[in-house]
Amino acid sequence: MRKRIRKDLERFKRIVRGEIRRNLKELIESGEIVGQRGRDIVKVPVKSIRIPEFRYDPRDAGGIGAGDGEIGEPVMLDPDAQGQIPGQAGQGPGGHVPEVEIELSELAEILGEELELPRIEPKGHERWVKSGEDYSDVSVVGPESLLMKRRAYREALKRQMWLRDPEGSLSDKLTAMSLAGIPERLRPPVLVTPIKEDKRYLYSDPEPIPETAAVILFVRDASGSMSGEKTEIVRQENYWIDLWLRHNYENVERVYILHDYEAQEVKEREFYELSTGGGTRISSAYELCNRIIDQRYSPKEWNVYVFHFSDGENWIGDTENYCVPLLRDELLPKCNLFGYGQITLGRRSAGLHLQKLQEHLEDDERLVCSIISGKEDILNSIKEFLGKGR
């Protein structure tokens, strides 16, 4: 029975994965998962899966046309029935889309399979001190979960035997009983109570274990022209980018930077909720990114990712005179990937900022640019950013 249940469960999971893959674009555009941040398991709406249910045999329903009435008599709506009467509010249940729970790791795998994203090869490691798993030593202190109960009992027994019978008569008596063939269950009980000094614990020497680490710097243009739907597009795309990078790295940290004419580091909630306003000077955000990386995230130990979203309406001369040199000489050499997404909302033409970046830095593979004209472009934009596996 267990094998059959396990087989059915695996089959159901395959069906769910297939449905999610087929509807991934719609799922991303709807943003229904984005609000479930901070959980290892999320609920995903799946339209075409029918949840198992009990059904009555149609042969016991009385057949077609069963009930009171004569042939040709018009059918009248019953006010007490679960139907809708013209001019009144509807009654009865409506159609609902079932939701299935899925682990974020599985969701990341589906995203990678659907977009054909290559696995990322980390270029650096951050070393963290962690306890090893080989408990080859014994300690007199430790957590109760690692208590060696038999060892503690033996230590307590030896201590009590020595205290009660230092001349060895008790031990001789126990030995004689054993030699006489008296079963252990018939021997007189010896009360043994381990104390703190008797307890022994499994112990493993802490050792440095390398773990791949990454930092993501999310940068958003918060000027007056970047409100409403543009902010929601940034939120949704950042969620899926973050999900994929977490799937590739053991340890991921995030930095959130807002900018208009000046840039500031903020918390995640403020990153999406602070109101927009003011002019735009993108170089202020790039300067802040550069300072944060230098002070907190050495590229020798961290894999650095920067994702900047804007509508490309930058201060005159700022892109060519400040942003391009800063990217070329400072930021790009420190990054695995620098992604710039220009949100146009219907306008397919690239703004001046994107044009200048492509014109001066098109040969650097670490810079990836994407045009996002609406939510329907989010999936393709994610593939453009992450498709090189850097």
Overview of this protein structure:
By secondary structure, the chain is an alpha/beta fold. The protein has three domains: 1-30 and 37-47 and 98-116, no CATH class; 137-203, no CATH class; 211-386, von Willebrand factor, type A domain (Rossmann fold), CATH 3.40.50. The chain is 36% helix and 18% strand. It has helices at residues 2-22, 24-30, 104-115, 149-164, 169-179, 229-248, 268-273, 282-296, 318-331, 352-361, 378-386, and strands at 41-45, 99-103, 126-131, 137-139, 201-203, 206-211, 213-221, 251-259, 263-266, 303-310, 337-343, 367-372. Strands 9-8-7-10-11-12 form a six-stranded mixed β-sheet, with helices on both faces. A two-stranded antiparallel ribbon has the order 1-2. Helix 3 (104-115) packs across helix 6 and helix 6 packs parallel to helix 11 (378-386). The model has no long low-confidence stretch (mean pLDDT 79).
